[in-house]
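Our example pasted here:


***
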Amino acid sequence: MSIAAELPTRRNEAWKYSDLRQAVGDERHVLREGRDIIERLAPGTQRLEASTKHLFVERMTDDRYMDARSFDWTVAENAELTRVVIQTGKELPLSVTRVRLAAGAKYTQYVLCFGARLARIETHVTVEGEGVEVTMNGAYLVGAGRHADLTSVIEHKAPGAVTRQLIKGVARKGGRGVFQGKIVVERAAQKTDARQHHRGLLLEDGAEIFAKPELMIHADDVQCAHGNTAGAWMSARCSTCARAAFPRVRRGGC
């Protein structure tokens, strides 16, 4: 049956800048049990473990109608997980990943997103043990008709963790970039050091970038900061250079 009626609209705060219902339209798809809509759209959730050092590369290159994926990671004490995501598929690449980190664990994530009719890379990280290190970096590059959404939630539930997140994006006319990042520091997570930044560049009129960095702090002995900068590239000379360079980037990546 059609699933449009069960999909989130832009009235849903988590999907405010990404209209999944409109993108899916009247297509038919099976909805499964799950904690969120991407998990319900995916064929299943892959449950994985990292016990030492692990590198996981996720390539989203499929141009079929919908490429929905769901991952659930458990990173053991003092283990390290590095995740690399490269998205070039042009239709509906959707990915949700949950990561749980034990004491002393390290999680590093790199995302490169070229956008699609609607692309969303969603990551949920839970710091469950003391002394965890989280690094989440990403970049999006979108042209006409491309939509890239990088959404993340990092929950600090244990003390002494360090989080660093930096997202950069570039949009041309008709392209839309979205960054939604939330860092939550619970009362027990004293001595947390968390920094989150987004930097966006609009190359032309008609480009769109929406950013919502967010901190929710319930502890008092922490060092936390977040920021967002977005601006237009006004120089005509620079704009000419950008138009010349952008097609080469797209040919190489898309």
Remarks:
- Residues 202 and 232 are 5 Å apart (CA to CA).
- The two ends are 32 Å apart (CA to CA).
